[in-house]
């Protein structure tokens, strides 16, 4: 099965359990940043961005995270607005808790 080695990490992401992910501190910080972007973009602070820089992320990488996060949020909003749902066979566990939570 494709991607099977990432199943545990994928489930942790679906459940919003960032602490259970096998990622570096810098990656976790970036995931938290994208979470803020997704749920409360207006709460992103200069200090949060500076923290990403101190963790080793470049301005280009931070910008890419913003672009990617915003684009995926656009797709989700469009799907919600047009009531588009993937076939159940593609997502047998339903809506992730990270999205509904």
Major sheet size, sense and barrel closure: none
- State the helix count: 5
- Mean pLDDT score, rounded? 85
Domains (count): 1
The first-to-last residue Cα distance is 29 Å
CATH superfamily: AhpD-like
The CATH class label is: Mainly Alpha
Shape: globular
Element-by-element helix/strand order: HHHHH
- Determine the CATH topology: AhpD-like
Low-confidence stretches: none
Which structural class best describes the helix and strand composition?
mainly alpha
Give an overview in words.
With 101 residues, the chain is an all-alpha fold. It has one domain (24-100): AhpD-like, CATH 1.20.1290. Helix content is 60%, strand content 0%. The protein has helices at 7-15, 25-40, 46-54, 59-81, 97-100. α2 (25-40) packs antiparallel against α3 and α2 (25-40) crosses α4 (59-81). The mean pLDDT is 85.
Summary tags:
101 residues, 5 helices, globular
Concise summary:
Helices cover 60% and strands 0% of the residues. The chain is globular, with a radius of gyration of 15 Å. It is mostly helical and 101 residues long.
């Amino acid at each position: 099965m494709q991607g099977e080695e990432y199943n545990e990490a994928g489930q942790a992401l679906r459940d919003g359990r960032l602490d259970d992910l096998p990622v570096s501190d810098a990656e976790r910080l970036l995931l938290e940043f994208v979470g803020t972007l997704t749920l409360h973009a207006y709460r992103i602070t200069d200090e949060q961005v500076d923290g990403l820089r101190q963790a080793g992320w470049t301005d280009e990488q931070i910008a890419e995270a913003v672009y990617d996060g915003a684009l995926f949020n656009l797709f989700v909003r469009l799907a919600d607005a047009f009531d588009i749902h993937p076939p159940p066979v593609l997502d047998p566990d339903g809506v992730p808790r990270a999205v509904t939570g």
